[in-house]
Amino acid sequence: MKLRKLFWMAIVLLPLLACNDPDTIAETETKLQFIIPLNSVQSQTKATAETYSFSGFTTFCLANKDNARNCPDNILRVMPGSGSVLTFLNVSGDISELKMEWGFASGGSGSYSMQGEIDLMLPEELPDNGSVSVNLDEVLAPLISQIDSNPKSYIKLLIKGNTDFEFTSIAQMEIPIIVEHEVLPVRFTL
């Protein structure tokens, strides 16, 4: 009788003590999407032209699923996708200079270790619809590498530049990434 009770207790407790090994490793494509508010200030006035400086920033953490759609848990690796783009809306003049800077902080400390400025290439002509798009695939490799090394780090993206018009608008950034993650079995836990 005691042996039978021990046997049934072992059967009942076995699923609770089972290892949580991953069934498979899967890849999921997702996009980091940001809206960056831009503020403009007049930097210098000449007799013929005015120059304005604009800037804006955003912060995110991939592990917290900030600004990420369909981002899985249990992240093992992050790889760059293709088609990263920065789009400026309501452009009514020339953007003479455009730079991006990014930094990281562990634990959301607020003290970001900023990396060097990156000059972004602007398109030659302004489209009729007033929006300007810049391809970011080539310049985001170090950023994706930082996210891959520590998905729990907080990232700050800073956009700044110069224009010949007062540019108070928004910029939209979209960064496709491929996330390699563990697929864990569904089991009952207490």
UniProtKB/TrEMBL annotation:
<protein>
    <recommendedName>
        <fullName>Lipoprotein</fullName>
    </recommendedName>
</protein>
<feature type="signal peptide">
    <location>
        <begin position="1"/>
        <end position="20"/>
    </location>
</feature>
<keyword id="KW-0732">Signal</keyword>
